[in-house]
Amino acid sequence: MITKAGVKSLTIVQAVNDALRTMLKEREDVILLGEDIGKNGGVFRATEGLLEEFGEERVVDTPLSEAGFTGAAIGMALNGFRPVVEIQFLGFIYPAYEQIMTHAARMRARTRGHFTVPLVIRAPYGAGVRAPEIHSDSTEALFTHMPGIKVVCPASPYDAKGLLIAAIEDPDPVLFLEPMRSYRAFREDVPEGKYTVEIGKGKKRREGDDVTVIAWGAMVPVAMKAAEEAEKKGIYADVIDLRTLYPLDKDLIAESVQKTGRTVIVQEAHATGGLANDVLAVINDTSFFYQKAPVERVTGFDVPVPFFAYEDDYLPTPARVLHAIEKVMNF
Amino acid sequence: MITKAGVKSLTIVQAVNDALRTMLKEREDVILLGEDIGKNGGVFRATEGLLEEFGEERVVDTPLSEAGFTGAAIGMALNGFRPVVEIQFLGFIYPAYEQIMTHAARMRARTRGHFTVPLVIRAPYGAGVRAPEIHSDSTEALFTHMPGIKVVCPASPYDAKGLLIAAIEDPDPVLFLEPMRSYRAFREDVPEGKYTVEIGKGKKRREGDDVTVIAWGAMVPVAMKAAEEAEKKGIYADVIDLRTLYPLDKDLIAESVQKTGRTVIVQEAHATGGLANDVLAVINDTSFFYQKAPVERVTGFDVPVPFFAYEDDYLPTPARVLHAIEKVMNF
Amino acid sequence: MELDFPMVQVLNEEGAIVQPAYREQITKELTMSMYRHLIRTRMVDRKCVSLQRQGRIGTYVPYEGQEACQVGSALALNDGDWMFPTYRDHGAMMTFGRSLTQTLLYWKGRTEGCVPPEGKKIVPPSVPIATQLPHAAGAACAEKWKGTKNAVIVYFGDGATSEGDFHEGLNFASVFHAPVVFFNQNNQYAISVPMTRQMKTKTIAQKALAYDIPGLRIDGNDVFAVYFKTTEALERARNGEGPTLIEAVTWRYGAHTTSDDPSRYRDQEESKKRRETTDPIKRVERFMQREGWWDEEWVNQVQGEVNAEIEQAVAEMERYPKANMSDMFDFVFAQPTWTIAEQKEAYLQWKRGMER
Amino acid sequence: MELDFPMVQVLNEEGAIVQPAYREQITKELTMSMYRHLIRTRMVDRKCVSLQRQGRIGTYVPYEGQEACQVGSALALNDGDWMFPTYRDHGAMMTFGRSLTQTLLYWKGRTEGCVPPEGKKIVPPSVPIATQLPHAAGAACAEKWKGTKNAVIVYFGDGATSEGDFHEGLNFASVFHAPVVFFNQNNQYAISVPMTRQMKTKTIAQKALAYDIPGLRIDGNDVFAVYFKTTEALERARNGEGPTLIEAVTWRYGAHTTSDDPSRYRDQEESKKRRETTDPIKRVERFMQREGWWDEEWVNQVQGEVNAEIEQAVAEMERYPKANMSDMFDFVFAQPTWTIAEQKEAYLQWKRGMER
Lengths: 331, 331, 356, 356
Ligand SMILES: Cc1ncc(C[n+]2csc(CCOP(=O)(O)OP(=O)(O)O)c2C)c(N)n1
Ligand SMILES: Cc1ncc(C[n+]2csc(CCOP(=O)(O)OP(=O)(O)O)c2C)c(N)n1
Ligand SMILES: [Mg+2]
Ligand SMILES: [Mg+2]
Prior knowledge:
The complex is a heterotetramer, with two copies of chain A and two copies of chain C. Chain A is an alpha/beta fold.
């Protein structure tokens, strides 16, 4: 849907598709690999139409082997390509963990920059769409602890396109997490053609002086909803969309927390070992004495992401976030 | 070396061997699997003599396939055995990540306790022994974020034996991390026969009212050394050896931090996403207003564990810890 | 290579027995039992698809067309054997004893669907592809070390052969002579990816050569070939002769899951054609007709019984107690850690507060 | 199966050419060049073992006994080809152009050892077993898509065949007809685990049948068999005929690494015996003697040259600038993240403070 000249109103998944098409056109070294991304256009249609437009050598349906095609993509990246691989669901990335951890992330360091792996790994993640079991993991923290790879997670169509293009242009490996639950949840105006959103920079989605609410990916709409509710009660929240999960936007976090002194972090993943604790560390290091209350974390629980009959109780909700906002306000 | 009746003076690796022998004797369902654990007695000799004593069906040299033998061990655990698998070095566990993450850790939850996986995964970890590259990872945090598995990490021979026996008796999967660098570094009196150290309980290794120093595994001796140095400067430290990394001993941490108000956490792993941040979260949640200074974290850096020529600069040292202790004291 | 692994048939498309050796074992009783299971599994599958369309269960994975694979192999098992299925093998699971209600609960996103009936060693379906193969190898070793005569069957698709776990599972089992049958349902597609894109080989059976174990290619739409060849492989396993790889060539008529649209990647005319020619149920019908065993009334009766069973199971599923959110916390460890206990308590308290 | 994959020999243990087809290509020049590389790699290996014993380098992985595999295959490469070695393949790397100094630096725990000479596509050794096979498949696809005539060689051991990545790499390469040679050095042990415990098959070559690619079993101690068969496989690759699996049967005389004690798991008499009978260098000597090409003086000269080269490299390694700790921070990303920049700065500052 074209809304005005040079701008289209797109969903996140369409924005991803647009970014891939843009970069396949723009750069000959870009190549897509994954399961069902060709003829089928991806199980979420993120690669729809690309095989037809760019052919079998640039949009490659691979055998069902995450370690195999991620490893092969590493070899292609060593040899001049910029592969973008799709992991069908983040819950199926673990067979490729070794390849990402030991090779993609370490090659530059091991070789003093002689060999590099400009690889993008795309993966839809998260719960909330009533998917079968194991399809709903949100384990970004397993990758932010892996030195040598950046982790990006857009919450909106504009950012999805701009960040994916930035990831493809990045000289180093990037894990690109796509919030499955937001894939088609809303549209936004997205410029045609190439533009980038800087990796490493978060975005303030709402301004307020009372409390800082920090979220990313599918939790951004949850945080926004909670902030709206809070406003009705006279509490004004800064809502920060992290957008990049490694490296975190330290300055944005510190600036806001130093202003409000009160922080709520909203995380879909399990509490222990989650990214919220990295945010906590940033606050500890930069803004300790500004804090007026302990940080509240609203997170998934320390349990495997449950079967879908239980997922509504697993996922942070605006009501839970609001409760946490009130808690830090009333401390 | 027998020091008194019923007690032997053992190194950590000998204590591990003793625990395995004890449990192979004690329980028929215990079985060991791994690469080179039989005839060779393990590359660190942790399983020395066990093949000879218990035979090929209980001490099983497997093909070189971490996913294969860990997966097979899951099948054996489902079918009544208590397998103890050895991953030769923690840096080689990643091929088995999928098996641990999706199956070992989730089976009980998926089946409402009908099927369970009483599996122990042993892995030497850490840097400091001039090992070839990739042999020195200390990525415990990749497992503490995995709901359904406990993570244990002894720092001393007594604890190594007692915790390993507790892990084998535990009805759920346990990752048992062995500090390679401390394997033969010192001896301690270890009782003969069976005893356990409770999983989930840390241990105070030194008492002091000024500052809390928290460490685990190979960092415990580093923390102890720093505490000794601090004492010479009139600073008295509580040194906590976490021993279990999931679940953390919240009460022990809170009690000490509430007493001292100042905390230093010593972690070998990369700063971002490390276990220190979980400790930070425990402090935030339990002891926020007791804190007199921001928590100091002394950690490995956000870089792949370097080749050994650089490892002395990567690893936290007593001097770095002492510096952090002084920093929190002078805040 | 294809020539070295000819496709074994016992009952051909026309419903004729082409392997006289098995003639005597194919009694009326056996045939009727098979037929009953075949139509039962098909009827359940169709019901599930329609339940999904009505929003009464979640995303569903249909197996229509693959009934002979699942029924024939499951009937070959002994009660004490183990079954390691995938998400598509509830036909096999039901044939081996899992109740319809449990099947439905699973697709409704309920963990109750993962609990097998007492004494039945049916492990919950493996969702990550091929990861169950090492488990099967290990469970089989355990039976061997215990000295039982139990065997293990593990199911997987053509796509699964590309994963490392396929290889590691078969290699492990072959080294330890584990009593396990690796039962491949080669439906020729992994979602949209045809077998030609999945592997260079024309058969899956030949992959057995990499492990020095027998590999066998059978007509997966021939319930007798499946039944007898699986029985023989299980016998080998029980006798200490180690694992077997069976490739059962078949076809799914419908979509990969109810979220999939097969017309995007293949001509559905092929499915239509196959329904007429190679259908696993039709050929048993043809055989029964040839033998004079066909009894319209009996068939109607069976259908009626299965319908009643299905209706009852659907009713049971729908009046099943609401999912209990506590379950999510209570089964992670034998004893909940403080983290889980605290999180549960805090959540329950907050929820109670919200409800007030 | 073993019979289907007979061990190919060109030069037998007695130093006689047993495949006349290659007779003409085995010139004096080629033979002398091979011989030179063989003794060079052996001398370097022995020197490294002794450097390790003296504590001048770290844990070292010796390859003595496997020189024919490494030299023969590396000499078969073109300059533009890719090499994906393991930790044991510095013989191959040096033969293909990596300097001795770099080799030594690697074993001294220095990243400088991972940087290949300008223009040479030698990827650093893969330490996690078998993980380099998918890379090789991918790099080969990339050459194909670029339309070059470059090929790829990837090394791995017998133990590596058990890992999933072995399977995934071969399958990927076979599906895409990638120009890659999978070169297996079957030294019959993975640390302490003998081949019989690693796999049920008696050959590794037969695993090629699982991918419908040529599989070939050769005498890995016969430098000519290795050289010609690798050349042919590379030719196939360049001509678009896809991957080949080569099993080169060999033996490591010594320990797995300098931290290993082989007497714990095998009789070292076997190594002694093999030194006399199947040694890759001795048989070339015998051949040269038969041909009348043996020239004591030339051999002494070569040894002298290699010794000088080694001494120079050792000296270079030892006066190499001290490891610069900044390197650890500076090469993680093209542009350091603030986390790394801050950590580096803080550490440097503290260290400067300490030094004051
Ligand atoms: C490790 C992993 N990767 C990807 C998926 C997503 N996925 C589910 S089914 C499927 C295709 C499986 O094909 P096949 O093995 O032939 O079995 P079939 O579905 O045809 O029965 C894929 C790719 C998954 N479940 N697990
Ligand atoms: C994934 C992984 N697991 C374990 C190890 C430890 N390890 C190093 S070498 C080796 C044996 C390899 O045997 P093989 O493949 O035959 O090669 P060889 O050493 O004989 O050349 C093992 C187990 C490793 N490096 N990587
Ligand atoms: Mg299939
Ligand atoms: Mg070997």
